[in-house]
Amino acid sequence: MEVDLGNTDQYFIVNKLTGETGEFSELFSESAGKGWNITYPRVVSEVLVKTGGSPVLAWMLLNKDTNNLVIASARKISEMSEMSISTVERTLKLLKEQEIIRKVQNGVYMLNPKLLCWGGKTFQINQRKWEDLA
Question: Which of 9, 13, 88, 99 has the lowest CB atom count within 10 Å?
Fold first, then answer.
């Protein structure tokens, strides 16, 4: 699938196999017993362009908890994403510079809730935590 950002107010998912398209502004996914996740496609698309579709970021997105925290050292991320430690460290630095992640403490990073977040009150709580880390 690919994302077409031709018009900045409309987004489309294109299934490359069938050619079908679907318009969206937010992507939701249910999570059994935990509510739902919301993803903001414009922000995600911009992040993917800025990071070159980084496997490090992909790993972090898949391994965040409900508070948008990723608990893993650069070494662990390197092992799990199958990227070199130097690539992971460069990517983490870029992600911090781009305000995609913030370091909470050694081995703990928070993903920007404007990128991806659990729905409901969790978003507001995570937004406050994100601002406190600034």
Answer: 9
